[in-house]
Amino acid sequence: xxxxxxxxxxxxxxxxxxxxxxxxxxxxxxxxxxxxxxxxxxxxxxxxxxxxxxxxxxxxxxxxxxxxxxxxxxxxxxxxxxxxxxxxxxxxxxxxxxxxxxxxxxxxxxxxxxxxxxxxxxxxxxxxxxxxxxxxxxxxxxxxxxxxxxxxxxxxxxxxxxxxxxxxxxxxxxxxxxxxxxxxxxxxxxxxxxxxxxxxxxxxxxxxxxxxxxxxxxxxxxxxxxxxxxxxxxxxxxxxxxxxxxxxxxxxxxxxxxxxxxxxxxxxxxxxxxxxxxxxxxxxxxxxxxxxxxxxx
Length: 297
Ligand code: SAM
Description:
By secondary structure, this protein is of the alpha/beta class. It contains eight helices and nine strands. The strands form three sheets. It has a five-stranded parallel β-sheet, sandwiched between helices. A two-stranded antiparallel sheet has the order 3-4. A hairpin with a 2-residue loop joins strand 8 and strand 9 (240-241). The protein is elongated. 37% of the residues are buried. Residues 1-16, 18-33 and 288-297 have low confidence and may be disordered. S-adenosylmethionine binds at residues 137-140, 162-164, 166-167, 182-184, 186-191, 194.
């Protein structure tokens, strides 16, 4: 299942926070049209993250490319994206601020209660309107891929739910969650790291997030290829030389070399990618490759 197929969970989805528009269907379009910065978007993506452990996400949201993108003044008009973190305990119930309880039927582990989570979702919907998607990070969700990141990068407003313990009550999944995303076939203690993975992958595709926006297009998995090897100075390091073509200044040759290396690496490491819908059938021109200086932002 891919995100573009617009999976809606639960029958009917009566939620007041149901997504406001169906997800875009799959289209065969050039990869640079698939991520947000190429669309001349006026709006920026806003992400609300609901978590029982806000402290886990603070550091990463303040660091590196992500941190810079979320800072005021990062873009022409404020931050290039906005991430708001909500502490599930602010919506807790009872004297002990309870957000979890024992599972019906017994067994080990606790379950996040539906009440606090739904109160938080409803409060967000009342304040900010309906999101494009309410995403629960879950090991049994659809697998997160670059294509999924590209598509999500074109959203205006996403709500992410990070689980803890045994997960969230199934009734919330059925009624309020519109997508479930897994970052891989392994189980982490909480959804905060998966949420950060998704946020980073989406925010770096926003216009203004990367110094050189087009470098994202030559990254691995765009166009179903792995990235070509990269080198920096010095040209000679401990007896190993940088391939001469990269120092030739001949953009056409460089583009051809990079494409051949990408293809070689993909065949060797991920031949499955070459069966994908975006697998390249011919060499890109140097302009498409990002080797041209005109393309550098
Ligand atoms: N009982 C759940 C299962 O076996 O599917 C695992 C719960 S896990 C310990 C707690 C939370 O971590 C989940 O609710 C989810 O939000 C998050 N999580 C763990 N692994 C994940 C993964 N691979 N992808 C996305 N979220 C994950």
